Amino acid sequence: MDLLDPEEFRRQGHLVIDFIADYYNSIEKYPVLSQVEPGYLPKILPQSAPYTPEPIETILQDVQKHILPGITHWQSPNYFAYFPSSGSTAGFLGEVLSAGFNVVGFNWMSSPAATELESIVMDWLGQMLNLPKSFLFSGTGGGVLQGTTCEAILCTLVAARDQMLHQTGRQNVNQLVVYASDQTHSALQKAAKIAGILPQNIRVIKTTKATSFALSPDSLRMAICSDVKSGLVPLFLCATVGTTSTTAVDPLKELCNVAAEYGIWVHVDAAYAGSSCICPEFRHFIDGVEGANSFSFNAHKWFFTTLDCCCLWVKDPRALTKSLGTHPEFLRNKTTGSKEVVDYKDWQIALSRRFRSLKLWLVIRSYGVNNLRIFLRNHVEMAKIFEELVASDHRFEVVVPRNFAMVCFRALALPKVEMVYRNGFNITEMISADDKRRNELNRELLERINKSGNLYMTHAVVGGIYMLRFAVGASLTEDRHVFLAWKVVQEHLDAILEDMGFNG
Amino acid sequence: MDLLDPEEFRRQGHLVIDFIADYYNSIEKYPVLSQVEPGYLPKILPQSAPYTPEPIETILQDVQKHILPGITHWQSPNYFAYFPSSGSTAGFLGEVLSAGFNVVGFNWMSSPAATELESIVMDWLGQMLNLPKSFLFSGTGGGVLQGTTCEAILCTLVAARDQMLHQTGRQNVNQLVVYASDQTHSALQKAAKIAGILPQNIRVIKTTKATSFALSPDSLRMAICSDVKSGLVPLFLCATVGTTSTTAVDPLKELCNVAAEYGIWVHVDAAYAGSSCICPEFRHFIDGVEGANSFSFNAHKWFFTTLDCCCLWVKDPRALTKSLGTHPEFLRNKTTGSKEVVDYKDWQIALSRRFRSLKLWLVIRSYGVNNLRIFLRNHVEMAKIFEELVASDHRFEVVVPRNFAMVCFRALALPKVEMVYRNGFNITEMISADDKRRNELNRELLERINKSGNLYMTHAVVGGIYMLRFAVGASLTEDRHVFLAWKVVQEHLDAILEDMGFNG
């Protein structure tokens, strides 16, 4: 039995490619959200590893029979939950090539192509986003592929921390303060905890509906001033372009101006929305990025690149490498010594790293900038369709303005107007009825929709309002899926209202 | 143009599988260590992204022409550098399936199969390693797949740190001390820096040739006592089974006993050598692991699983989840609330995670425990062959005892005995000639060998001795490659001696 016999590899590889192609062909027949109960798999699989080999055909049968029912189908065209993990043939094939070569590109020498292609592709992408030269290798900065935004934030935060402590002394770590809004991703909290920032020094600044839940520069300034007065040291701001709950956009320019006065490192987390900024009409969302220290977005979210692939650019790579660099003897080599090359191990948490740039390279080349823009615009257009459908039904409302391809909406629980009157309610009163009951209604609505298996959405609670998030971005989604989704939403509201006694 | 058309996916998928199979078929024709110069790729590729799409056939031609020359061929049978990244058809196919489904398994609900299969496979593997029940889900602990050992160490260190600071107060972070030997992987230093441990509180305890560069429990105790006297707080010990430089094995039992007296968290880093412990005859190397708090090994090193896949077990998962848990509203769901399920996002740095357990599952099922042991034993046997070849040539020596499938050796620079006399040297003097000159010789020897492209080895410097590391573990390596490698080593020494004037 051979581990890597080329002909057996070829035979089994073709089987698995066909298995996945067949899966995509039939993906709509599965409930989008897995319907299994906790503990379903241990009941099926053996309790210990097999002693003797099993053929790939048997294993694939088991994947079909036992694994697929336990999968939530992120690639389904009816997947509208969280943010998309938009796959593509090119992104997939890049991952496959990378797995086939299976090189460990920790430094330049361990596989020069892995390093150089990454630098090239990060410059390509940076140009596509119209990032200032100060973030590009062709300028004075540079880009690196991380696994996730969590890692990107942790790396930049540690760089900022060490830069500051180098000036003020290590013993002052407990004075450092990190700033975010109440809409910032939990990744920031986690990164700050890992980096040893005191929990009470993580400022979570309140946002309001008045600013569409964007962080207000005035609120930031007030928080900073108060900390400075208390003898604390402002360190790091995580600004967001496209927040997780509602795709809110923090005003980068104004925030960076405030931060600059206090020498704060600004990281811009555009995990979801960053990719859309390759379209000229959306580029304004990152206006002001030139004032930030670092910028990241997830190509594995809405850029057709298989998980995981977070693109991070920094203005000052040396800040990263000073904090994260290691120089063990067993990795010494002439090119590293010459300082002519990038050793990406010093730009990230881990030593080992996969050849991730291959998948980005394949995505960009296989589709070209023009098609990539078209794909993104199509998703935004589909979200607009959904938004209009919501607006056309007076029983629903769009809760916050739509910025990208995600619509935040909720049922207002209005039965038909006639019924409201018949039941002695005033419509206006009903609309302003307490949000608690509305929240319960929408929770119930979402649960029924997801249980149906017809589509999958998730929720957010912002400003006390429970809302449904309809995030377009799965690569197989077409207009018809959006119309169908809306029909499902309406039908489930009908059913709930009927159950509540508003059955006409 | 479609992003994910199933039939186009199928067509292109088959092309790429054939491309990789052909690559494996012809892998021996490439120089193992890439011979390109820094900056080779920017000279070839365009400076900006293409506006229009390019066919996969063109891209694959470019991979062949431009990427392959820049790859160091980790899958080559003549690859003996660092530690192996031993690929396999099964490990590759698991990665491919995972990329095909492209689910984001941060919590149970986002894809129950991803979570449950991971827990099952980690218990399988734990049993294969004969880990105590206290590390398994079927006992009182649990296992999780991390990307790399660096992440595993950082996560456990942060858990240990927070547990300690919870007792002593957050302000005491600057008192915490982390222990390692001078052979411990640089991952520990990096993790400690990221976690905010003061650089001067990272104890790097010296090892010596007398203990084959294993950490001495007495030295550990002395270091701890000295710190305690200074009012510092001992926190964390990273013990290693199979160090990077020489595969030294720290005595776990004794070290854990010392650590237990002081309430120190012990992490066992068996990144490279852990997998071999599924063979009963090697299991003794991790005897004493029952006294540790956590244990990890890299399935992507020597367990035939595509990069990245680090297996981490902890006795107290709650210590991890207390430090790394986040509970944002947008991820709330019934199963998480019920606490019946594992949400692996709280066991790691990142939120997002790939379906990594698929590849481990495929490796274990496709080969079975019996074959996996045979593969590992074969590699050890091949290392033994090489060790004997080295020992049979009096111009070389094996520098430290071989534990696993890696041989540390060096040239002693002895020309033929007759020549020594002719040149007026005494053999004994020559053998004890100063190591500096020997080190230079071996550096030169390694550089010439790697430049030949016939094989690739790397070096280590331990106890002042520069040595060549011959690490067997590439999945395509057979006995003949080992014999050939030895021939290449001998020939290059011959050539050097000739250049030095010892040309008989």
TrEMBL record, chains A, B:
Signal sequence, start to end: none
PROSITE patterns noted in UniProt: DDC_GAD_HDC_YDC
Keyword match ATP-binding: no
InterPro entries: Aromatic_deC, PyrdxlP-dep_de-COase, PyrdxlP-dep_Trfase, PyrdxlP-dep_Trfase_major, PyrdxlP-dep_Trfase_small, Pyridoxal-P_BS
CDD domains xrefs: DOPA_deC_like
GO cellular component, one term: cytoplasm
Keywords for this protein: Decarboxylase, Lyase, Pyridoxal phosphate
Pfam name, any one: Pyridoxal_deC
Molecular-function GO terms, alphabetical: carboxy-lyase activity; pyridoxal phosphate binding
Family classification: Belongs to the group II decarboxylase family.
Name under which the protein is recorded: Tyrosine/DOPA decarboxylase 1
Organism: Turnera subulata
Classification of source organism: Eukaryota, Viridiplantae, Streptophyta, Embryophyta, Tracheophyta
